Please model this.
Amino acid sequence: MDPFSRRNVLSLGAAAGATVTAFGARAATFGNPDSPLEGAVNSNPKSLQEPGPKNPVLDSQFPDVGSPPQTDIGDMPQFWSSFNIMPKRIQAGGWARQVTQADFQISDAISGVNMRLAPGGIRELHWHLAAEWAIVTNGSCRVTVLDPDGHAYVQDVGPGDLWFFPAGYPHSLQGLGKDGCEFVIAFDQGHQSEYNTLLVTDWIAHTPPDILAENFGVPVDAFKSIPLNDLWIFQGQEPGPLAQDQASVASGGIAPNPFTFGLGGVTPIMSNKSGALRLADSRTFKASTTIAAALETIKPGAVREMHWHPNADEWQYWIKGEGRMTVFDAGPRSKTADFKAGDVGYVKRSQGHFIKNTGTEDLQFVAVFKTPVYQEISLSDWLSHTPPALVAQHLNMSVSDVKRFIDSRPGIMPV
Model:
């Protein structure tokens, strides 16, 4: 018999648990396959005390960091960050804050920006070295973009709407109405930053006036009042009717695919009484050639089932509610962290994970993937489509119990 079989390890765990009981802790064997046993449940109560200095506010925010589940084990890069702890850059027309790989090392495929534009606030004409994907979380915004074939696109977007601008496509954003807008941007490069954006005012200010005159076919004096500093986000006048702006740029023709998409209104690909998952990738949002995204809603107490993504890392922006995510990797390694609105999560490609809504309201987050097509593998779907006798031998379970595994890929497990 293999001396390191799971049954023997669990037996060793039970023996160790009995020893721990002598110190007054409640021993547990199931879910504690490692030796020595992990978790507060197997600890001497006195060892759980924290007599030294601590921040009680942070302590209350991250209960599963201070006292992880007993199944957590090993080291794993930090997969939690938050816009809430990032400094804002504030100007007359709005503000922005960002989470890039410089602050969040694990996030090498995607960086994120949280931005607000006041009513009439303008994110000046610019372009990036990376593709830009975004979701509107509040208010409304007018976007403009030009493709390499001279097709101009102008559209208004609201909550739950997306836009996608491929790398190098010049664009602008402007807040509308009485509320302006707020949105979250995901770039398909981890190092992309608001501070390495190519701005039209920068280029104009750093080009000789005679060259500007020749390039645009107007007198040199036309440029006498150009801004000498970039505008970035500035207060502008609210634009006129959408149709008027669209007509003003129509001479270049129509872009083959819209650069915006209404994710909040699409039919969920997974839905039940415990939540829903809505998807936008290149199959439905055809302009979005390098980013796929899922808007996930999980009801209180429900669990986003154990799964992984074989083709891309997952970058998350938590929109509302609160929850707990556990990530599993080879080693074994398993780590749990708590998330709230405004936080950012990251799961490397093919790492298993699940999320539980630990709050009293709906949990909602958007998951972004640097890939044209969304892919997911469900653990229950895999095991329920493997010969039951084979699975039973792996898990030391009865074949009849294995046959009861859910095989419908619900996505979100009922409460």
Notes: Residues 317 and 323 are 12 Å apart (CA to CA). The two ends are 40 Å apart (CA to CA). The longest helix spans residues 6-21.
